[in-house]
Amino acid sequence: MTGKIRHYFTGGNTAKGYHHFIESNVDSLSRLWIMKGGPGTGKSTLMKQIGHIWLEKGFDIEWIHCSSDPDSLDGVIIPSLQIGLVDGTAPHILEPSAPGAKEEYVNLGQDWDSRKLQSHVEEVADYNEKIEECYEEAYKTFGEALAIHDEWEEIYIDKIDRKVADQLAENYIKKLVGNVHLHKKADVKHRFLGAVTSQGAVDYIPNLTYELPKRYFIKGRPGTGKSTLLKKLAKKAEQCGLDVEVYHCGFDPENLNMVIVRELGFAIFDSTAPHEYFPEREGDEILDTYEKIIPPGTDEENAEAIQEIRQRYNVKMDEGIACLKKAKYLHDELESIYIESMDFEQVNKIQQSIHAQIEELVGLSE
C-alpha cells in the first residue's frame, strides 16, 4: 500500500527577508543527509527519488517545498524512520548538531566538470549578482507592503473590544484543549502556512487538514485578533504536553496563520485571502473575529480608506512577486550552465548509496 505525502514550507520570502524554521522539523530525526551543491546539481530530484521509493513501500512522507519555486523541494522527511534529507545550500543554511553521528553532508559538487564551469565563471558570477539583487528588491517591496498592511490593521485595532477578544480566545482554548494534560514534553514544529513564490501565493491547507475531523475557519479583517488567538492556543497546547504544528504567516513570520493539534484532531486557521477557504464537510466551522469583536458598521465607515489601502497593498505585492519571477528566470538560466557540466550518472550512484544506507538503518531497527 502506498503511503501519503504531507506538503508544507519551512522557508519563506517574507517582508522581513528570507526566514526559515527547518531546525524544529529535523531536530528529532536520528539521521539527516544535508545536500550541498550549486543550482541544477540534482538536489531536489535526488530527494524526490528517495521520497518516492519509500512512499511506494508504504511509508508516509513529508515534502518540504521550496518557497521560491514550489515545484522544487527543500527537503524530504520519513517521520516513522526518523530520517530526512534537506537542501543545505544558501539561503537555508543548517548547522549540524552531531556531524557524522547524526548529520552527513552530501556534496553533489564533486560530480561537476570544473573545467566547463570555469569557462562560464564571469557569467555565473553575473547571474548570482542579479539574482541576489532581485531578492533584495523583493524583500524591500514586501517590507513596503507590510507597512501599508499595518495601516489597514490600525483601522480595526482601534475598534477592538479587548475584553471580548480575550474572552473569545479563552473560550476557544477551553473548547479545543479543555482539561487535557499529557505528561510528556510537547513536540512543537514551526512551519509556514504558505509562501509568496514566483507563482504567487501558494499553500497546502487542504492537504494538511483533510484527515482532521474538526477544522475551524477563522474569518475577519487585518488586525482583528486572528494571530493573537492562535498564539494563545498554541502556547496552551504546548503547556499541556500536546504536539503542536505552528504555521507562521508567509508574509510576516511573527504572525501565526494556523495551529494543528493532531492528537486532538483539529486545525484552526486564518481563512482569509490569499489563503481563503470555506466549510465543505461535516466538522467544518467558521469563527468570524470581525463579527465577534469589532463594532458593526466599521467596514462601511472606513470603506473609502480601506479600498485605497487595499489597492496600494496589492500593487506592492504584485511588484514583489514580479521580482521573484525574475529571480526564478535567472536561476533557471544559471541552472542550465550547471546541468551541462554535471555527471548525473554519479549523482544517481549517490542516490542509490543513500537509499542503501537507509535500508541498512531500517534493517538494524527492525
From TrEMBL:
<protein>
    <submittedName>
        <fullName>PRK06851 family protein</fullName>
    </submittedName>
</protein>
<dbReference type="InterPro" id="IPR027417">
    <property type="entry name" value="P-loop_NTPase"/>
</dbReference>
